Amino acid sequence: MPTLIYGPGYRQYDLGERHPFSPIRAEVTLDLIRELGIDTVPLVPEPATVDEVCTIHDPEYVAAVEALGQGREVTGFERFGLGTADNPIVPGMGEGARQLAGGTLTAARRIMSGADDRVLQLGGGLHHAKRASAAGFCIYNDVSIAIKEMVDAGMYVAYIDIDAHHCDGVQEMFYSSEQVMTVSFHESPEFLFPGTGWVHDLGRGMGRGHHLNLPLDPFTDGDSYLATFDAVMGPALSWFRPDVLVVQAGADGHASDPLADLMLTSRDYEAIFRRLVDLAARHTKGRLLVTLGGGYALHAVARVWAILGLVLWDQPVPHAVPAEWRRRWGSLLGEAALEAMHDTSVEPVALRDEIDAHNRQTAQRLLDAVAPLWL
Amino acid sequence: MFVEEIMHRDVVTVSPDLSLAEAYRVLQKGGFRHLPVVEENHLVGVVTDRDLRLATSRLADRPFTPEARVGDVMSAPVSTAHPRDPVERAAHTMRDARIGCLPVEEDGALVGIVTVSDLIDAFLAVTGVRRPSSRLELRLRGRSQEFATLTRVFAELDIPIASILTMQESDGRTRVIVRPETIDLREVSRRLCSEGLEIVWPPPLACQP
User: Quick check: ipTM above 0.90?
Assistant: First the structure.
């Protein structure tokens, strides 16, 4: 049985009532997972310590985050990317960020100790946080903290990021490392935040050929996404031979997401999750750590991440959304509180064939670029 | 942006009496293509790897030998820049003269060199993404008031602006590409539309008529 990691402390990572990166997303998901009959008691993690956070982050930045979160003044906080619309200064933000980091770190340790193969961390995935600055809703880079600990223990880590936004923070932290491979599928940086993640960004020094970026066209649909995924993932993992897969399972690639322009459906996500389980079985003896990430259409992320839970627990996806769950959250979800777990079929995208052809070319260009590095 | 901000200060120079073979070795070793030629502390010419290869080519009408003097094949007189020239002035000069470098002189002394590569770096610094940011493309009617509205809306929402690029369109309107440091463009787009500005990209945020 996989382990589910979640704690009430995750609610402390709350950037404000109207902020899109709301802790309610995980809460609603957890409730749906339970209503779907996954009978598991979440493991409540300890928050990461300041020292643990400093394995990845600049101590000066961490001190500023902690002080500002405790209501103390810090001069020049702007240089840390704080005090903006995306990363406002809110009470308890250091502690909240450490709660999420603690969850991902606990997940990593469960796998390192052999206690678990599959772990679902129902939070985290703050892939934009940089060494010395916050960005894109992310304060502490929980995935990088967890990966660093595994790397220091000698493991080879393949990090797969299916969030609609490029994982700039994680890529930057391990850009010169030969022990970490990062693979990011995202909407093209030409159009979407953070503006990085091009095919030719392959890593530096010993890390060259270890960083794969698949910038997808806006309005890419599931078939095209999966074709790109399949073209790259098998060869990448066969070459890299990781000990563990770490997956940032942002759900903002969903067609209804308000912050990105990809066209994935819940069925596409199910297909991606099944592929990840298969890849783990084939390449990492089943070792698979999955975190949440972006995803801002509440009704979509709850179903997508509940489907993630069902796949990890080897359960089929039922047709109906549990009525009890809809009753409980209906007012919050509004008319979007669908009755079916899966989206109804969507209309094909205009220019679908051109988009697909361009994505295939992107995948091919990437494979051509890494071929001489993968000898 | 001025030439002195992008120029290389440690300039490798050669004397006009150096042999072509020696000059070629200097270029190979340094990994660059342009050599200012200096005599008695005065810039007297520039020699490039292309000059050396063409001069010594067997395809040339009268090929030089590797022992010939740099002074015999260098380009002279030389177009130069001043450290406080604007970068775009240097770019114009290089395009007009169809050359790949400009030695930088101040008070008669050689103080640096700029090359096409430095100008490309400057272009990347202006247009490139240096901070995590989104991209919002607008079309303005070319009035300064609309720029004021644009930046005010971002300021009101505490959204830092990483860069603003503008291009004149043929009909007199101005295409503007803003890189805001935010992942969420919804509220700012809504406000820009309600202020009467036209959003060109991303399409889902285009203003409703």
Answer: no
For domain B130-205, the CATH architecture is 2-Layer Sandwich (3.30)
Mutate to test the interface with A, among B129, B130, B135, B183 (most CBs of A within 10 A): B183
Which residues of chain A lie closer than 8 angstroms to B179, CB-CB? 195
What's the CATH code of the domain at A339?
3.40.800.20
User: DSSP assignment, residue A154?
Assistant: T
**CATH architecture of the domain covering B3-124:** Roll (3.10)
Of residues A237, A213, A258, the one with CA closest to residue A359: A213
Tell me: the pLDDT tens digits for A296-332? 999 999 999 999 999 999 999 999 999 999 999 988 8
Q: What positions of A carry a catalytic annotation?
A: 128
B185 → chain A, closest CA residue: A259
| Contact yes or no for A124/A103 (Cβ under 8 A) | yes
| pTM for the full predicted model | 0.89
CB A47 within 8 Å of CB A94: no
CB contact under 8 A, B182 and A168: no
Tokens of A9: 């402390």
CB contact under 8 A, A190 and B135: yes
